[in-house]
Amino acid sequence: MKKIWFTTATSILLSASILGACSNNETANEAEPTAPSAAATPVVEATAAPEPSAAPAATEAQESASPDDTGPQASERPKTRTFGEQEGGVSGQTGTLEQGDGYSLYVFEDFTLDAQSGRLSLTEDPAYYADIEHLPAGYDLAALKQQGQTELSAMGKVSDHSGELFEHPLGFADLYLQAAGDKGIEDYMVWKNQAGEAFLFRIHNPKGELSNKFVPWVMVSLATLENSDFMVEKGL
Asked: Among the four residues 35, 52, 147, 202, which has the most C-beta atoms within 10 Å?
Protein backbone atom coordinates (compact mmCIF):
# COMPACT_ATOMS: atom_id res chain seq x y z
CA MET A 1 0.00 0.00 0.00
CA LYS A 2 2.76 2.43 0.90
CA LYS A 3 4.53 1.44 -2.28
CA ILE A 4 1.47 2.33 -4.33
CA TRP A 5 1.18 5.76 -2.67
CA PHE A 6 4.85 6.40 -3.23
CA THR A 7 4.52 5.46 -6.86
CA THR A 8 1.43 7.64 -7.24
CA ALA A 9 3.11 10.54 -5.53
CA THR A 10 6.13 10.20 -7.66
CA SER A 11 4.00 10.25 -10.82
CA ILE A 12 2.18 13.36 -9.67
CA LEU A 13 5.47 15.14 -8.97
CA LEU A 14 6.87 14.18 -12.36
CA SER A 15 3.73 15.41 -14.11
CA ALA A 16 3.89 18.69 -12.25
CA SER A 17 7.54 19.07 -13.17
CA ILE A 18 6.82 18.39 -16.83
CA LEU A 19 3.91 20.84 -16.87
CA GLY A 20 6.05 23.48 -15.20
CA ALA A 21 8.84 22.97 -17.69
CA CYS A 22 6.43 23.27 -20.61
CA SER A 23 4.95 26.41 -19.11
CA ASN A 24 8.41 27.92 -18.73
CA ASN A 25 9.29 27.04 -22.31
CA GLU A 26 6.14 28.72 -23.64
CA THR A 27 6.86 31.84 -21.58
CA ALA A 28 10.44 31.89 -22.85
CA ASN A 29 9.21 31.47 -26.43
CA GLU A 30 6.77 34.33 -26.06
CA ALA A 31 9.43 36.62 -24.58
CA GLU A 32 12.07 35.84 -27.24
CA PRO A 33 11.53 37.98 -30.41
CA THR A 34 11.59 36.19 -33.70
CA ALA A 35 14.20 37.28 -36.25
CA PRO A 36 12.52 39.14 -39.12
CA SER A 37 12.70 37.41 -42.47
CA ALA A 38 14.35 39.04 -45.42
CA ALA A 39 10.99 39.37 -47.17
CA ALA A 40 9.75 41.64 -44.43
CA THR A 41 12.44 44.29 -45.07
CA PRO A 42 10.71 47.49 -46.29
CA VAL A 43 11.56 48.47 -49.82
CA VAL A 44 12.15 52.14 -50.44
CA GLU A 45 10.55 52.76 -53.82
CA ALA A 46 12.82 54.87 -55.99
CA THR A 47 10.76 57.76 -57.31
CA ALA A 48 12.16 60.14 -59.87
CA ALA A 49 12.64 63.57 -58.40
CA PRO A 50 10.63 66.18 -60.32
CA GLU A 51 12.79 68.24 -62.62
CA PRO A 52 13.12 71.76 -61.29
CA SER A 53 11.42 74.44 -63.33
CA ALA A 54 13.59 77.06 -65.02
CA ALA A 55 14.91 79.54 -62.54
CA PRO A 56 13.35 83.00 -62.86
CA ALA A 57 16.75 84.54 -63.51
CA ALA A 58 17.39 82.22 -66.45
CA THR A 59 13.93 82.88 -67.85
CA GLU A 60 14.48 86.60 -67.62
CA ALA A 61 17.85 86.24 -69.34
CA GLN A 62 16.25 84.34 -72.21
CA GLU A 63 13.55 86.95 -72.59
CA SER A 64 16.08 89.77 -72.57
CA ALA A 65 18.12 87.96 -75.23
CA SER A 66 15.16 87.85 -77.63
CA PRO A 67 15.63 90.04 -80.71
CA ASP A 68 14.06 93.43 -80.86
CA ASP A 69 10.77 93.22 -82.71
CA THR A 70 11.41 96.51 -84.40
CA GLY A 71 14.75 95.40 -85.92
CA PRO A 72 17.84 97.54 -86.43
CA GLN A 73 17.26 101.15 -87.23
CA ALA A 74 18.77 102.70 -90.32
CA SER A 75 21.96 104.51 -89.47
CA GLU A 76 22.12 108.24 -89.95
CA ARG A 77 24.88 109.99 -91.86
CA PRO A 78 26.38 113.19 -90.50
CA LYS A 79 25.72 116.39 -92.40
CA THR A 80 29.44 116.97 -92.92
CA ARG A 81 32.44 114.65 -93.01
CA THR A 82 36.16 115.38 -93.16
CA PHE A 83 38.38 113.38 -95.51
CA GLY A 84 42.13 113.23 -95.04
CA GLU A 85 44.99 113.90 -97.40
CA GLN A 86 44.73 112.13 -100.75
CA GLU A 87 47.37 110.44 -102.88
CA GLY A 88 49.98 112.83 -104.23
CA GLY A 89 49.89 115.10 -101.17
CA VAL A 90 46.46 116.58 -101.96
CA SER A 91 45.24 118.33 -98.79
CA GLY A 92 42.17 116.98 -97.01
CA GLN A 93 38.71 118.51 -97.33
CA THR A 94 35.34 118.50 -95.63
CA GLY A 95 32.38 117.29 -97.68
CA THR A 96 28.70 118.17 -97.24
CA LEU A 97 26.02 115.50 -97.55
CA GLU A 98 23.70 116.14 -100.51
CA GLN A 99 20.76 114.28 -102.01
CA GLY A 100 20.50 112.95 -105.52
CA ASP A 101 17.78 110.89 -107.16
CA GLY A 102 17.39 108.06 -104.62
CA TYR A 103 20.88 108.37 -103.20
CA SER A 104 23.14 110.66 -101.20
CA LEU A 105 26.84 111.47 -101.30
CA TYR A 106 29.36 113.92 -99.88
CA VAL A 107 30.08 116.89 -102.15
CA PHE A 108 33.19 119.04 -101.74
CA GLU A 109 33.58 122.79 -101.87
CA ASP A 110 34.66 123.06 -105.53
CA PHE A 111 31.85 120.84 -106.83
CA THR A 112 28.17 121.21 -107.65
CA LEU A 113 25.59 118.40 -107.70
CA ASP A 114 22.60 118.65 -110.01
CA ALA A 115 20.16 116.37 -108.21
CA GLN A 116 17.76 116.10 -111.15
CA SER A 117 20.26 115.13 -113.83
CA GLY A 118 22.61 113.30 -111.43
CA ARG A 119 25.64 115.27 -112.61
CA LEU A 120 28.47 116.10 -110.23
CA SER A 121 30.62 118.77 -111.86
CA LEU A 122 33.45 121.12 -111.07
CA THR A 123 31.85 124.46 -110.26
CA GLU A 124 34.61 126.48 -111.92
CA ASP A 125 34.37 124.50 -115.17
CA PRO A 126 31.34 122.18 -115.66
CA ALA A 127 33.15 120.42 -118.52
CA TYR A 128 34.71 118.35 -115.75
CA TYR A 129 31.88 116.12 -114.60
CA ALA A 130 30.64 112.69 -113.50
CA ASP A 131 27.15 111.51 -114.43
CA ILE A 132 25.64 109.23 -111.77
CA GLU A 133 23.01 106.61 -112.54
CA HIS A 134 21.54 104.40 -109.83
CA LEU A 135 21.23 100.93 -111.38
CA PRO A 136 18.23 98.70 -110.64
CA ALA A 137 18.55 95.22 -109.17
CA GLY A 138 19.19 92.57 -111.78
CA TYR A 139 20.96 94.85 -114.21
CA ASP A 140 22.76 93.24 -117.17
CA LEU A 141 26.49 93.81 -116.76
CA ALA A 142 27.33 92.32 -120.17
CA ALA A 143 24.88 94.66 -121.89
CA LEU A 144 26.33 97.64 -119.99
CA LYS A 145 29.83 96.67 -121.06
CA GLN A 146 28.80 96.55 -124.71
CA GLN A 147 27.08 99.91 -124.36
CA GLY A 148 30.15 101.43 -122.71
CA GLN A 149 32.47 100.20 -125.43
CA THR A 150 30.19 101.74 -128.04
CA GLU A 151 30.08 105.10 -126.25
CA LEU A 152 33.82 105.32 -125.61
CA SER A 153 34.93 104.15 -129.03
CA ALA A 154 34.19 107.64 -130.39
CA MET A 155 36.86 109.00 -128.01
CA GLY A 156 39.59 106.55 -128.94
CA LYS A 157 40.89 103.10 -128.10
CA VAL A 158 38.97 101.51 -125.21
CA SER A 159 40.92 99.83 -122.40
CA ASP A 160 39.42 97.62 -119.69
CA HIS A 161 40.57 98.15 -116.07
CA SER A 162 37.75 96.19 -114.39
CA GLY A 163 38.44 94.58 -111.03
CA GLU A 164 40.55 95.74 -108.11
CA LEU A 165 41.67 99.36 -108.24
CA PHE A 166 44.90 99.86 -106.29
CA GLU A 167 45.20 103.05 -104.23
CA HIS A 168 41.90 104.24 -105.62
CA PRO A 169 38.97 105.61 -103.56
CA LEU A 170 36.50 103.24 -105.25
CA GLY A 171 38.60 100.16 -104.43
CA PHE A 172 36.91 97.79 -106.88
CA ALA A 173 34.84 98.16 -110.04
CA ASP A 174 32.74 95.44 -111.66
CA LEU A 175 33.28 97.31 -114.91
CA TYR A 176 35.83 100.02 -115.68
CA LEU A 177 36.28 101.05 -119.31
CA GLN A 178 38.43 104.01 -120.30
CA ALA A 179 39.27 105.82 -123.52
CA ALA A 180 41.68 108.69 -124.10
CA GLY A 181 41.84 111.15 -127.00
CA ASP A 182 42.34 114.74 -127.99
CA LYS A 183 39.32 115.80 -125.95
CA GLY A 184 40.57 114.23 -122.74
CA ILE A 185 39.72 111.02 -120.89
CA GLU A 186 36.35 109.27 -120.63
CA ASP A 187 35.57 106.67 -117.95
CA TYR A 188 32.62 104.29 -117.97
CA MET A 189 32.25 102.45 -114.65
CA VAL A 190 29.90 100.11 -112.80
CA TRP A 191 30.57 100.18 -109.07
CA LYS A 192 28.89 98.78 -105.95
CA ASN A 193 29.03 100.22 -102.44
CA GLN A 194 29.31 98.09 -99.31
CA ALA A 195 25.53 97.70 -99.15
CA GLY A 196 25.53 96.16 -102.63
CA GLU A 197 23.89 99.15 -104.33
CA ALA A 198 25.12 99.48 -107.92
CA PHE A 199 25.85 102.72 -109.77
CA LEU A 200 26.92 103.61 -113.29
CA PHE A 201 29.40 106.47 -113.73
CA ARG A 202 30.24 108.36 -116.91
CA ILE A 203 33.20 110.57 -116.07
CA HIS A 204 34.64 113.21 -118.37
CA ASN A 205 38.04 114.77 -117.71
CA PRO A 206 39.17 117.31 -120.34
CA LYS A 207 42.75 117.00 -119.05
CA GLY A 208 43.14 120.75 -118.62
CA GLU A 209 44.55 122.92 -115.87
CA LEU A 210 41.83 121.90 -113.44
CA SER A 211 42.38 118.15 -113.72
CA ASN A 212 44.33 118.00 -110.47
CA LYS A 213 41.45 119.68 -108.67
CA PHE A 214 38.82 117.46 -110.29
CA VAL A 215 40.19 113.92 -110.40
CA PRO A 216 41.02 113.18 -106.74
CA TRP A 217 37.85 114.57 -105.20
CA VAL A 218 35.29 113.46 -107.74
CA MET A 219 36.35 109.86 -107.03
CA VAL A 220 36.18 110.38 -103.27
CA SER A 221 32.65 111.79 -103.63
CA LEU A 222 31.52 108.85 -105.74
CA ALA A 223 32.93 106.43 -103.16
CA THR A 224 30.52 107.88 -100.55
CA LEU A 225 27.35 107.07 -102.51
CA GLU A 226 24.59 105.36 -100.55
CA ASN A 227 20.99 104.56 -101.19
CA SER A 228 18.71 107.15 -99.59
CA ASP A 229 17.06 104.41 -97.49
CA PHE A 230 20.28 104.02 -95.46
CA MET A 231 20.76 107.64 -94.45
CA VAL A 232 19.50 110.43 -93.53
CA GLU A 233 20.27 112.77 -90.69
CA LYS A 234 17.13 114.46 -89.43
CA GLY A 235 16.44 117.84 -90.89
CA LEU A 236 18.26 117.19 -94.18
From this structure: 202
